[in-house]
């Protein structure tokens, strides 16, 4: 059984099972994906995620604002906490720093389209504080902001609560540094891309008990589905690639990443399907 630890179920592409969430989840369930974590990119989007979660017992949700999302008024710590609380989020995020689009080339084209460094840093800091106060793990989006991401995490998070660097695209050194601070590393379909040798290095060498798998669907379809909108069913391809890289069975990757998921997202554990709880107990993983 598999967990898709990061999918955007409110952004389904119409080409994916006619844009139908139930059909999309069914396709994943048919491939033994047993749990979905639906990720917020805005606080306004959280009620819709909560609705999806109420309709589907195997969907849990997060609450947070993506670093590249433009908002009228920046939510403060209390607003983030209130939203997570009200809608039973199991994590805070996705939040973080993404400086990729701030380079000059891009700014020449669209100077006002992306929140600047200052805004991103303060927004991220508020999320980290909210997560610590609620004792919830944090889902971190980080791109081309390595030192600042690590510094803010070190300053504001409790390693006993931890979090995840999602859709990880940085190098092994950064992964290890995050792991040292109690974080997990989540790999997406990017690990299957031909030019992603450095990510496969991470897949081979990060401790197996700190690895998660995700699709980040509808983005970033894995090989051999590139060019199509991604969907949670394809988290299996991510697991397969990791198994190959580590020279272990896909069953072991599935069991271990599932156990890791419930260890990190503790609030999701009591709701885990009985089948998963039994399997993890039998394997001595809980
Ligand atoms: Zn992200
Ligand atoms: Zn995402």
CATH overall fold name: TIM Barrel
Radius of gyration: 18 Å
Query: In total, how many domains does the architecture comprise?
Result: 1
Task: State the helix count.
Answer: 11
Net shape: globular
Q: Can you give the mean pLDDT?
A: 94
Which stretches are low in confidence, meaning pLDDT under 50 for 5 or more residues running?
Answer: none
Structural class: alpha/beta
- Cα-to-Cα separation, first versus last residue: 15 Å
According to DSSP, the number of beta strands is: 8
Bound ligands, named by name, code or SMILES? zinc ion
Q: What is the H/E string?
A: EHEHEHEHHEHEHEHEHHH
What descriptors fit this protein?
286 residues, single chain, 8 strands, 8-stranded parallel sheet, TIM Barrel, binds zinc ion
Structure in words:
With 286 residues, the chain is α/β, with parallel strands linked by helices. It contains eleven helices and eight strands. It has helices at residues 21-29, 46-55, 77-86, 104-109, 117-134, 146-156, 172-180, 197-205, 235-246, 250-264, 274-282; strands spanning 2-7, 33-38, 59-63, 91-98, 138-143, 163-165, 183-187, 211-213. Helix 3 packs across helix 5. One zinc ion is lined by residues 94, 141, 166-167.
